[in-house]
Amino acid sequence: MKDIFGKALRDYHNNNYTEDLITSTNISDDDVLPLPYLFRSYSEMPKLEQKALQLAKGNILDVGCGSGSHSLYLQKQDFNVKAIDISEGAVEVCKKRGVHHVELKALLDETETFDTILLLMNGTGIFQELSLVSTYLNHLKTLLKPNGQILMDSSDIQYMYEDEDGGLWIDTNANYYGELDYFLSYKGEDEDPMKWLYLDFERLQIACKSVGLTCEKLMEGEHFDYMARISK
Known about the structure:
- The structure is a single chain.
- This protein is α/β, with parallel strands linked by helices.
- The protein has 6 helices and 12 strands.
- It has a 7-stranded mixed beta sheet with strand order 5-4-3-6-7-12-11, with helices on both faces. Strands 1, 2, 8, 9 and 10 form a 5-stranded antiparallel beta sheet that branches.
- Helix 1 runs parallel beside helix 4.
- The longest helix is centred in the N-terminal third of the chain and has 10 residues, at 4-13.
- The radius of gyration is 17 Å and the shape is globular.
- The relative contact order is 0.17.
């Protein structure tokens, strides 16, 4: 990874904000990801994220913490929060913004246990592809304290395959429609393509059941997105 995401976060935090991140996927055109959005306050967060933060309890793990907005909010509520990210720039910015406990670490390398694990902003994305979902869920299971919970959001992106008549052009012989190639660019530099997974709730629920976890939908968003709670 070139850590273009981290470079953009550093620029914004250091008052070098001149342009935004550009994202795209193998099924969608370029889209702007405004850097200020990555530094949003609680009041600026989507309702799904607000709901997750309201339900957080005990010792908390913030996975893919980005600039640390969720961790900072929870710290202010006197929670003990550990934030992790695979972006060096994100970890650096989190520290500068005041996140007390942040580490450069992938989820599968985490070994501590927690009462709440947060995977927000399409938390299933880091699962990469459908075949790896059970691997990640089994690992997450080992990180849960008794009565612990995983709060995760994602979207069913089947709508992106609809034509004008409402029909679907999904290739039934291809991979799961939520498996995307994700592209990121910033100031003319391109990040290496990433695998990114959007997982519909029904498949998440089935995957959880297969590894001995329960999964309930807590809330639906405005555009095919949802918040789920997973527990032992």
